[in-house]
C-alpha cells in the first residue's frame, strides 16, 4: 500500500468532484480523501503516482507532496515477508521519493515541449485575387 499526498488547486466543489471521480476510477486506488482547507488530496492504494498526477493535471494544477507507505496494522506480515526474502535490499524511502520525482519531471518535461511558431505572409503583387484599397 502506498500513501500519496498531493497539493491540488481545487477552487470549486465541481472541480473537486471531477478530480475525485477521475482518481477513484484508476485501478489500484483504495481510498481518496480531499482536504479543501489545506488543498491536499490523499490517495491510498497501489496506484502509480505518475498516472494519478497525469489524470489530475487535466483538471487542475497538481504537485506531489509525499509518497510513502500507508500505515497499516500488518506489521507482522511484513516481518514474515522480510524473513523469507532476507537477501533483498530495500531502498531508503527518501531515495524512492527522489526517484519518483525525477521520473515525473522527465515525463512532464517531455510532454511540455514548446511548439514552433509558423508565420505565413502573402505579397499583394504575387496574389492576383487580393484586393488593395488605395
From TrEMBL:
<dbReference type="Pfam" id="PF00403">
    <property type="entry name" value="HMA"/>
</dbReference>
<dbReference type="InterPro" id="IPR051863">
    <property type="entry name" value="HIPP"/>
</dbReference>
<dbReference type="GO" id="GO:0046872">
    <property type="term" value="F:metal ion binding"/>
</dbReference>
<dbReference type="InterPro" id="IPR036163">
    <property type="entry name" value="HMA_dom_sf"/>
</dbReference>
<feature type="domain" description="HMA">
    <location>
        <begin position="1"/>
        <end position="68"/>
    </location>
</feature>
<keyword id="KW-0488">Methylation</keyword>
<protein>
    <recommendedName>
        <fullName>HMA domain-containing protein</fullName>
    </recommendedName>
</protein>
<keyword id="KW-0479">Metal-binding</keyword>
<feature type="region of interest" description="Disordered">
    <location>
        <begin position="71"/>
        <end position="95"/>
    </location>
</feature>
<comment type="similarity">
    <text>Belongs to the HIPP family.</text>
</comment>
<dbReference type="InterPro" id="IPR006121">
    <property type="entry name" value="HMA_dom"/>
</dbReference>
<keyword id="KW-0636">Prenylation</keyword>
<keyword id="KW-0449">Lipoprotein</keyword>
Amino acid at each position: 500500500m502506498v500513501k500519496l499526498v498531493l497539493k491540488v488547486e481545487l477552487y470549486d466543489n465541481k472541480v473537486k468532484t471531477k478530480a475525485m471521480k477521475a482518481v477513484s476510477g484508476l485501478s489500484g486506488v483504495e481510498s481518496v480523501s480531499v482536504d479543501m482547507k489545506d488543498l491536499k488530496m490523499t490517495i491510498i492504494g497501489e496506484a502509480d503516482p505518475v498516472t494519478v498526477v497525469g489524470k489530475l493535471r487535466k483538471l487542475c494544477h497538481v504537485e506531489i507532496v509525499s509518497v510513502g507507505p500507508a500505515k497499516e496494522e500488518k506489521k507482522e506480515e511484513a516481518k514474515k515477508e522480510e524473513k523469507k526474502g532476507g537477501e533483498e535490499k530495500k531502498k531508503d524511502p527518501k531515495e524512492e521519493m527522489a526517484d519518483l520525482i525525477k521520473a515525473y519531471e522527465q515525463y512532464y518535461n517531455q510532454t511540455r515541449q514548446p511548439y514552433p511558431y509558423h508565420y505565413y505572409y502573402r505579397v499583394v503583387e504575387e496574389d492576383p485575387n487580393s484586393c488593395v484599397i488605395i
